[in-house]
Specification:
Beta-galactosidase, Chain A, domain 5; eight-stranded antiparallel sheet
Length: 301
Amino acid sequence: MTLADLNSRFGIADQLTFIDGPNGLVFAEIDNALGSAYICLQGAHITTFRPKDQVEPVIWVSKFAKFAPGKSIRGGAPVCWPWFGAHATESSFPGHGFARTVMWEVTHSAALPGGETEITLALLETEQTHAQWPHKTRLELNVIVGKSLKASLNTSNLGDTPVQIGEALHTYFQIGDIEEVQVTGLENTVYLDKVGEVARKTQSGAITFNGEVDRVYVDTTATCTIVDARLNRRIVIAKTGSRSTVVWTPWTEKADKMGDFGPDGWRQMVCVESANALENGVTVAAGETHRMTVEYSAEAM
């Protein structure tokens, strides 16, 4: 579908416009009275979101992010699906699945009565995706942009046998400084610590940061809050249909090796990911739909 077709069928005056981005990528630009966001049609990747009552964005994207066909974007809210982390048996398959690097199509848009803007995208199946995922499924991402950002990742099993998925919204949040934030809501929760020798531990108190953190918290449906002393705000992350939460910061050495954070971009972000990972993988019965829904909002401290 051409840019003109997208704007004719799904554009909304004064709210939603489809625009050309770097290297031929197409973006949905959403800007209403309550908030603004950009969504790349490759990966259905929300690259940034800012409520109009906030000076700083809530969702972070690197100034050095590489926008290119078939490549993941550093920052935003990448869709990890249909597996989380490495594939269980095929090391050549991409980490976190293929959904974040393939094209999606717009299937719906609407201006909602409360002033929010809604858009729905569906993953386009190709020979490549079918080779890696030979199951009859439909994946959709529904996004509502307003004072908060709501996103629902919906997996429908169109086949006649159950399928098991892993998934996450690998969201990067904008913060003042990683050493001055805390993440609350996961106290006393068991997690897999993936830094150094892998071990299972239990969270004591709020999460604070003074080095690399890579943790998968399991069996938790809790709402999490990023308490940001530098920006004097709280980011609240509420979820349903998710039983894992991943918390990640690469810190300086790993960020330098990745090459798309810049000299200190890692200091202005923290990932708090709503997920179904490890033992919290989801079995979707034939004919059923699994929904993982998140809502991100910000408030002054």
